[in-house]
Amino acid sequence: LVHERDEDDFSDLIKTLRDTRVFVIVVYSYHEPTSRLYEQARAQQVGGDGFVWIGASSTRLTHAPSFLTVTVWANLETARYREFVERWESQPATFDEETGECSAELDAVGEPIWRRSDVNGNSVCVGKNYSSESPNLTSVYAYDAAYVVARALHELLEVEGREEVVGAELRDAMLAQNFTGISGAVAFDSVGDRSEGYMYEVLNHVGNSSLQRVAMWSPESGYDE
C-alpha cells in the first residue's frame, strides 16, 4: 500500500488494512505520515492490542507500545572502515570558519559542488564540514553502493570494451559484484537484495523513550535473540 508524503487522510488505506485482516503492519515511510497513520488507525480500532507495527528508525514512534524499530547494523571496527575514516578526515575543509563562506568550487558543468539546499530549501555547505561526526551508516552504505556501480561500469567499459551500456547489462554486472567493502562483504542474490555483509537490529520501545534489543537478523544466520 502506498501514500503521498503529505497525505492527511488515511481512511482508504486503513479500510484496506481492516478488510485484509492483517495483524503485522510494516511501515516504510517518514516519521510524520507514519504518526498520522498510526493515530488515525487507532482511532478506527485498527492497530491496537494484538497488532504489531514494524518500521525503520526514521518512522520511530516512541508513544506506540507495539511498534518495533528495525535499524541496519554493520561492523565498523574493521581495518577497511578505519582506513575509510582516515581518508575522510584528511579531506580539505569545504567551509571556511573565518569567512563563514562555503567553497565556491564548481563541477564540470559549472554547478557548485559543495553548496546545496536541504529539504527545507535552506543553503548548506556539504562535504567534510556538513557534520562534525565520523561517517554514519548512511554514508558507509552509500560509499559501497557507489563502488558497486563503478566496478560494474569498469567491467563493461574497460574490461569488455563496450562502447555503450544498456540498463539490463549494467544491472547484471552490478549483481555479479562480490567484494569486501567498508560495510563488510558485498554480494547480491538473483533479485538484487544484498545477500551478505549486513545485519538488522530489531528494537522494541520500553516506556516512552528507551529502546530494548529484541533480536538481530542477518541473511547468513537468520534471527538471533
Give helix % range: 25-40%
Widest sheet, order of strands: 1-2-3-10-11-12
Terminus-to-terminus distance: 30 Å
Class by alpha and beta content: alpha+beta
* Spans of at least 5 consecutive residues with low confidence: none
Whole-number radius of gyration? Answer: 22 Å
How large is the count of helical segments? 5
Mind summarizing the main beta sheet?
6 strands, mixed
Question: Mean pLDDT score, rounded?
Answer: 82
- Write down the secondary-structure element order: HEHEEHEEEEHHEEEEE
The proportion of strand residues reads 15-25%
What would the principal axes of the Cα set say about the shape?
globular
Question: How many E strands?
Answer: 12
List keywords for this structure.
225 residues, alpha+beta, six-stranded mixed β-sheet, globular
What does this molecule look like?
By secondary structure, this protein is α+β, with helices and mostly antiparallel strands. The longest helix is centred in the middle third of the chain and has 23 residues, at 137-159. The mean pLDDT is 82. The protein has helices at 11-20, 31-43, 79-89, 137-159, 167-175; strands at residues 24-27, 52-56, 67-73, 95-96, 101-102, 115-117, 123-125, 179-181, 184-186, 199-206, 210-218, 222-224. The chain has a 6-stranded mixed beta sheet with strand order 1-2-3-10-11-12, with no helix packed on it. The protein is built from 5 helices and 12 strands. Helix content is 29%, strand content 23%. It starts with 10 loop residues before the first helix and ends with a strand.
